[in-house]
Design goal:
The structure is a homodimer of 176-residue chains. Chain A has 176 residues and is mainly alpha-helical. Chain A contains seven helices and two strands; from the N terminus they run ααααααββα. At the A-B interface, helix 1, strand 2 and helix 7 of A face helix 1, strand 2 and helix 7 of B.
């Protein structure tokens, strides 16, 4: 699939409510579970998504759109505020608010095909396009949605007994 | 985590609205995408979930609860109606309806700890408990939620350009 705004924005718009629908008011056993040491709980994933709204996607898109001489993105701190003690419903609310504002900003730019080909400089990859940045925003959402549910399922690995055999999600070594 | 009804039912109740929130009215490019030959699209996953509501979870729990002499479950046809031409919004509606009824049935049984230890006979595994069956129902939901989002993300593998390097979900061989 090529990236285009009409197919990408619907995902960006839905993510906060999909995650809220899944996690809000759920017992903490579910929202604090991880896949093992150095892996993230659903709670931590939401904190990470908030940081993306604040410092990654739209700020980088602004740098590209401005087309100044210096177009290098600040590195994104993937681990920022992962240890936050803020309650999950606070985080979900903030993510929802920031994402709505950011999608409104994106829509407001009314980007054309040529705008999607404008470039910025990624600190690691070098030259990247607006189109690649926005497609990555969408994939980042989907990948963290997959992570949240993949993380929760193994909490019942013991509980399902012999059925473990039917679920790849209960067998995979997450470090691979 | 041990399985208990207070933690398991909230997941069962949420799944239809989580999936609807994600998929309803989304462009078909997203809902018909697969991970390759012999893998399922999000659309097909919903058809499969409907079949589970009709023929697997509650019907098997009824066999266990009845404690008759013959307690062998019918085999579950994982591939039933995967080729359905019914529109996705129809499927989402039916899944929501069936799941609500089934959760109401489960709640109505008001199962106690001893009921959760009652057993039935799985056609492949032999003796399984009500607790294992219900835990498997929950894991089945979470695992298909993970599958849906994991299936959608790689649609943009090309579109993200160099960012592919950051996403395990874009690199994994799904046949493993």
């Amino acid at each position: 699939m090529d990236f285009n705004l009409d197919e990408g924005i619907p995902i960006l718009e839905r993510t906060p409510s999909v995650i809220s629908r899944l996690l809000d008011d759920l017992p903490e056993d579910w929202t604090r579970v991880t896949e093992g040491p150095d892996t993230w709980s659903p709670h931590q994933v939401v904190a990470h998504l908030i940081n993306g709204e604040r410092t990654d996607w739209i700020p980088r898109a602004r740098i590209i759109l401005k087309q100044g001489k210096y177009r290098r993105f600040d590195p994104f701190d993937r681990f920022f505020e992962l240890g936050t003690q803020r309650p999950l419903n606070d985080l979900l609310e903030e993510f929802d608010k920031l994402r709505s504002e950011n999608v409104a900003t994106l829509r407001g730019w009314n980007l054309k095909e040529l705008d999607l080909e404008l470039t910025g400089e990624h600190p690691e990859f070098g030259r990247v396009t607006m189109r690649q940045l926005l497609a990555t925003w969408v994939v980042h959402d989907l990948s963290h949605l997959a992570q949240i549910t993949r993380t929760m399922a193994p909490a019942y690995t013991e509980a399902v007994g012999p059925w473990t055999a039917y679920f790849r999600v209960l067998q995979r070594d997450v470090r691979q």
